[in-house]
């Protein structure tokens, strides 16, 4: 079917402000939004730009705003958002990060927040004398499983009203990453991470809007994980 | 203005191989990682089912069995000394990953949990063995995340979204690389004592492919364009279980958990072809028999696909679960959450209720940049290029021979990423920085100026589509001389059209119009070498199945192929010359080639 793709465009070398480009594209119901965006880039206007790589929802490159909601362009199928010829799909860059060009935003502030929570395993105790793995029970492994699914696409953080109003807020993705280590029974740096998250721009700026949970393409219950970090800060106990 | 940087070592690519090398090399040397993506976007993250290591956590296992399986799986084109390093080092490398924090699944006694995978057997082929260490079906994601996290911890230098165009080698000594900063199109020269190429695969030369859009083999093309050889390029793996038409991968872990292939008659056909391992036979064999079924008119509805069925009741009826044990829906959802979701999202099918339409999808390059077991790149059959390394899919050690076993790609990246990284750090301690020509970036600047100013009529996307169609149609699972000649001729035609390219974007900021065009040029070179190498090898072996030479020919072809450009030129542009092939002996230690049965 022939649909209309409305894309928010901006090229700092040519435009003083963003503008809406409108493109007619021929799509199959099973096409991804990414396929439609590629049709524009490859056959209509080569100056149009976006990031993408794996095209099946695991690399986290192509988080964009589709019809007002944060999604991965490679994980939304046409049949789920258009019904007939002439239907319109709007695509914009994710909000709260500076637009570099078209759908490409400056991800560095997002990754700076990510790095601020010590997103790496810390355990300086000697590894088992037999050279084998550290043991971990199935239950202990399960405890932090949700956070390990994160692909750092920023769909959550850039859907968060608290982040929109203050870009200093560490944001849901960074809390998810911290949660993954805080609740890992093998890790030894929970206290330091909790200290970061206990600051003014830490976890307390979360107003439980649930936008992050709705936006996550990996179906991580982000609001719940943030709640568990808050609970830990309130009680001083990692459960 | 060209900018200059100086490091002990530069690593090109930030997937598993590059990051593993970076972690080890940066302990002793000043290292920069240069990648055209943000590191966590690398395609290692798409690997699903597991990483093999003979830990023996589930049942008895040994690294010797793993080495043997790798050699037999590669149809005896594997260098056996390298396979021994692979299997032996795998144990230690996997344990290192655990120590770095990787969240492996656990057994009831808290050890790393393992599952079955195609071609991995106990006691030299007796029965499937649980060897693949796993984290659900996102093992590669966990490896990529864990390695990147540790690179942050270790404060490794990253140049993200820098596109590498050229590898500088002069008088057989590597001196650095040239890259373009995607953000502003500035050219950067990285002067270094050592360079490692860890740029991954180049599967985007095929239409139906599991590969990311960005897997275009740019540094692999650069190696060839600079007059160095590429090894065994005819061997490209077609993974049997791509989602029909889309090519998105459904992990072999599904069959490890009990999934089976079903044809239009409702028959579990692999039983007929490979009575011992059945659906867990290696990938080349499964892909071939899927198409045998299709050709015999037993594709689903007479079409060019079959079903992979992993409904729990079907697995239980066939007793195809691990050890013949019953599986439940809960177990399947827990073991394979991502691929179940892929099927639901992209096909609209619930694999717990219906069988899944699958077809072979272009997946993995067994061939690539020839190296020794420490990742050092070869200039010919014997000579090492000083200071140049390669590891991972872009390299050919060769541990995969004519067909890679499932999970061995992840083993390859951590084992040889680590070996190369360590060797590179030692090399940097004693080596001096070789002088670099002040004009080192000129070829890159010239080529990019040419592309940016090109006022032709051909859209890169059309040439790319034509190339992908040629490769999928003529250099696929089954091959023959006439078809492959069509592919070679067709790609040479496409190279002519490439000279008449149309560019819309003449700007400097994130100009992916120009970069994608350059990527296409790299793929055209690699596709031509792949097709020509396939035409050159007149036998059937592993992933290279020829209808006109349908037997393995150990008398004439128990050797690697080495492809060289023949015009004596050295540049960064698309080549326009014939390819010369030479043979390189296979290293055999313990295992004499035998007929390959499962």
Can you tell me about this structure?
The complex is a heterodimer of chains A (239) and B (598). Chain A has 239 residues and is of the alpha+beta class. Chain A is built from eight helices and seven strands. Helix content of chain A is 29%, strand content 14%. In chain A, the strands form two sheets. Chain A has a five-stranded mixed sheet with strand order 2-1-5-3-4, with helices on one face. Chain A has a two-stranded antiparallel sheet with strand order 6-7. In chain A, α2 packs parallel to α5 (172-182). The longest helix of chain A is centred in the last third of the chain and has 14 residues, at 222-235. Chain A is elongated and about 60 Å long. Chain B is α/β, with parallel strands linked by helices and 598 residues long. Helices cover 34% and strands 21% of the residues of chain B. Chain B is built from 17 helices and 22 strands. Chain B has helices spanning 16-25, 63-73, 80-99, 139-153, 218-225, 253-256, 270-273, 283-295, 312-318, 329-335, 337-347, 408-430, 442-452, 460-474, 481-498, 512-536, 554-557; strands at residues 3-12, 31-35, 51-52, 114-122, 127-133, 157-160, 162-170, 173-181, 187-197, 230-231, 236-243, 260-262, 306-309, 356-365, 369-370, 376-378, 384-390, 395-396, 478-479, 545-546, 559-565, 579-585. In chain B, strands 1, 2, 6, 7, 8, 9, 16 and 17 form an eight-stranded mixed sheet that branches. Chain B starts with a strand and ends in a 13-residue tail after the last strand.
